[in-house]
Amino acid sequence: MSTIDANPPSGSRDFLPADVARRDRAFATIREVFARHGFDPLDTPAFERLEVLTGKYGEEGDQLIFKILRRGEHEASGEADLALRYDLTVPLARVAARYGSQLPTPFKRYHIAPVWRADRPGKGRYREFFQCDVDTVGSDSLVADAVTIVAVADVLDQLGLAGFRVQVNARPALAGLIEAYGVPAELEASALVALDKLDKVGVDGVAAELTDRGIPAAAIAALTADLGRDDLEEAVRERLAATDVGAAGLAQVDRVLALVGEVPGGDVVYAPVLARGLSYYTGPVFEVVHAGLDATIAAGGRYDGLIGMFQAQDVPATGGSLGLERILLLLEQAEDAAVRSGPDVLVTVMDEDGAADALALAQRLRGHGLATDLYAGGGRAKLGKQLKYADRRGVRVALIRGAEERTAGTVAVKTLTSGDQTTVAEADLPAHLLRLLHP
RNA sequence: GUGGGUGUAGCUCAGCCUGGUUAGAGCGCCUGGUUGUGGUCCAGGAGGCCGGGGGUUCAAGUCCCCUCAUCCACCCCA
């Protein structure tokens, strides 16, 4: 190929006008709902100092950080000192440590922004994607955990994604699970990864995976006996209650469930084997799945140890993250095909002599709040071509004003959707259009 | 990171198994029918080193090897 590849880099996307319009609508709803729940917006740089990011996401996570080489005379060293942010939680922890004394406590913020991962791209998995996080810093009360879940559920409902299920668990409850069923403590993380797949692979699948991971047969037998039961939750609750840590975990889960109560658009349940990314969660964790989909559309939990990595004192924090790309995918599938993203009106340009007049006309209409496009191809383009452009853009009304109309002080108004065309006096035009477009 | 599929016109693809004159279709695009009327219709047109490199052959889009890209499953995640 002699020309340069015009595709965006692998794992990234271009957003054409219709895409941006759809995304912005969803973002606006999210911002509105989080603001209504008392969360403030926060923004941070796209890149951070490398040391801020490393060591926060586990060994595999560190490999996925997009590093930025040192620049100028140091570039030849091949070292990186900066990196694109990997998520929005670590930047929050940095901000909380840096500005903690200036911020209200508890500090509640939401953050919608792109993050980057040097991952291998796949379906619904990108190297650049948007995250939307909502967190509360500085409260060790489970009220903060409940507030997160209520706000996230409200957002999903407002977006029109009713039919979701919020699954709640707690890190101590998972530790209790491990202890109660006799899984060696050092295999805890590995065993939980296998257990988390129960919904996906079933009891037999989990048993097989536990075996592969070297879990003792006795522990597997005890686990699978309970996992297969219809009253799985009751069975696990009994086991957990027998251990200190398990009982503490159950208490967290039940307290959060009680505080959250009912949410519109979905239900909230205890999920005994929900594990989540274990790296920094310390208390309640949750995950939201949508009915009929095995995809997680939101998730979160409490991470009381993270901010302490940036300052001497630990600060408790809890929050959640919306799976924006998946949510947008769902919205796209549900969307009516007939959504128009273009302007209301197109002013055509009949001839170069009338161009200045057309510009002035368009500007006047904008003053009346009408989204008005002017055919930028100039007056040499045939009217048919200009109308075709209008049609293509989804514009509802085209204005035609040649020498004839200019002399008469009128404008021809053509409604593209119906094909109707009328001539109105120039002075009546704004009112006429407003009636036509916003009856 | 492991296994499998696919790369041909702007887009979606046919042709490849069984190599053989100018590589096709639909949609889109451009022009005209309509020198000031789109979306429908009719006619015409432009646009392809068949992903890249090497090999086999008189001859390669077609067969073989390598490479790159991309998609699916697993792993991991949002």
Largest sheet: 8 strands, mixed
Q: Rg from C-alpha positions? A: 28 Å
What gross morphology would you assign?
Answer: elongated
Fraction of helical residues: 40-55%
Distance between the termini: 54 Å
Structure description:
The protein is of the alpha+beta class and 439 residues long. The protein folds into two domains: 17-334, 2-Layer Sandwich (BirA Bifunctional Protein, domain 2); 345-437, Anticodon-binding domain (Rossmann fold, 3-Layer(aba) Sandwich), CATH 3.40.50. The chain has helices at residues 17-36, 50-53, 58-63, 89-99, 142-158, 171-180, 188-195, 198-212, 217-227, 232-241, 244-260, 324-334, 355-367, 383-393, 403-408, 429-437; strands at residues 40-41, 47-49, 67-69, 80-84, 107-116, 128-137, 164-170, 266-270, 284-290, 296-302, 317-322, 345-347, 372-374, 397-400, 410-415, 421-425. The chain has an eight-stranded mixed sheet with strand order 1-5-6-11-10-9-7-8. A five-stranded mixed sheet has the order 13-12-14-15-16. It has a three-stranded antiparallel sheet with strand order 2-4-3. Helix 10 (232-241) crosses helix 11. The protein binds one RNA strand of 78 nucleotides through residues 1-2, 5, 7, 10, 60-61, 64, 87, 115, 117, 119-126, 129-131, 193, 277, 295-299, 321-326, 348, 350-351, 382-392, 398, 400, 402, 404, 412, 414, 416-417, 419, 421.
